[in-house]
Amino acid sequence: MKPFELNIRHLRAVAAVVDTGSISAAARVVNLTQPAITQGIAKLERQIGLPLFERKPGGMTPTVASELLAPRVAAAVRLMDSRHATAAQINAFLALARQGSYAAAAAETGLSEPSLHRAVGDLSLAIGHVLVERSGKGVVLTARGAVVARRFRLGEAELKSALSELALLEGREVGRIVVGAMPLSRARLLPAAVTAFHARHSEIGVGVIEGSHAELVGPLRDGEIDMMVGALRSIPADYGLAQTALFEDRPVILARAGHPLAGSRGPITRQAMTAYPWITPALGAPLRSQWQAMFEAAGAHPPDVPIECGSVMMIRQILLQSDFLTLLSPDQVAVELEAGWLVRVADAPGDVSRTIGVTTRADWRPTMLQRRFLAALEDQAKIITTSM
User: Fold this and answer.
1) Does the pLDDT of residue 52 top 90, yes or no?
2) DSSP 101-148
């Protein structure tokens, strides 16, 4: 079941009954008649397959299902911030936002283009703002439309979590966890955690979206991904994100097997650090800052960087064919080191390290299965720390 197959007003009614303790009080909160609330609750119970209340002479007693559902619904309604929008309108608008044209949105939803036009138009009237504008053969979101789309996605994420938690009550594991994978998580931490989680919860899909911090932070804040894993950043307090550290990663100086520095022992000298060209990420990347700090710790001026590259695959190939040096985490080239194609020249001078961890929305409330995935990450982080 998809979140917006459920009636939003009926969901609000359930939350109001749980909060107020009676249908009559809830009716005043959600502006529905008592019979409409009763019918709406009955329909929701048929859709989700679970009783939401126990009907007693003294009133409606919430079941475990409604106690799980109510706070998620309250959060979704607060995030979407629109009491006049229907589920059908929201679903149509989000499909249009994803696809960028009415034709593509119609293909995704199975609705006709006129139906989509009408739903999005009615939503704009309900909200009181123009949400989309024509652009060539497609449409683009207005500034207000982008804000509304983000709120609706966050509300949708809460309702998906609610459905996942309700399914667990019936002994079913449903849903999907979407993880943003930054470079330092892809070699060892995240693959191991995904494998361990899948072994225990094979019915739960795991989507991994690769990208840099800059590429993933927007989808995270919009609710399109559940968490980011990788090097932690300095984030403004008002950005709405929370970070949890897992372990410290220490990059090392690497080169090809047979490099003139390959057989060196002990700390690397300033002369050796500046005798060969370097390949590093561009200015502004955390690893580039670490590289500069390494030279400062060695009392040397950072040399010019003839090749700037953030792709580990590209860096590896260039190292194999040249006398370039680079600074990378050993985990990122574990296969190449084990095969003997690359060698560890030396540890980086100074306190060169990066904190690897998980970034989530500050107000994110993980489901039981999401908490278990986080636990799998923590378990693998402990293994990595032990092996360092």
Assistant:
1) yes
2) SHHHHHHHH---HHHHHHHHHHHHHHHTS--EEEETTEEEE-HHHHHH
